[in-house]
Write a structure and sequence with these properties.
- The protein is of the alpha+beta class and about 80 residues long.
- It has one domain (about 5-80).
- It contains two helices and four strands, in the order ββββαα.
- It has helices spanning about 45-55, 60-80, and strands spanning about 5, 10-15, 20-30, 35-45.
- The longest helix is centred in the C-terminal third of the chain and has 17 residues, at about 60-80.
- The protein is elongated, with a radius of gyration of 15 Å.
- The protein starts with a strand and ends with a helix.
Length: about 80
């Protein structure tokens, strides 16, 4: 865990064999009185193996599917539908 502001911000940073990444989640009060969750991910893919990994994961849209699943799960939890 890299950065936390309770009830507002969670930033996770890490590395693995092929990338350096950051996942950032922010909560914001909306004008309608609800809460909006903003999620952002970023990564660097150094060297040849990193570029190949990026092509397989990002190029195949696997990353998008994974992030959408995470956000759908968070939404279900927030709405008490688990």
């Amino acid at each position: 865990m890299a950065e936390v502001e309770p009830l507002r911000l969670l930033t996770l940073r890490g590395t693995h064999r092929f990338s350096e990444y950051e996942l950032r989640f922010e909560l914001e009060l909306s004008t309608s009185g609800g809460i909006c969750l903003h999620a952002r991910s970023s990564a660097a893919f150094p060297h040849l193996k990193g570029r190949i990994y990026r092509a397989l994961v990002i190029g195949s849209r696997g990353h998008r599917v994974g992030v959408r699943r995470i956000l759908a799960h968070v939404q279900r939890q927030a709405e008490g539908r688990l």
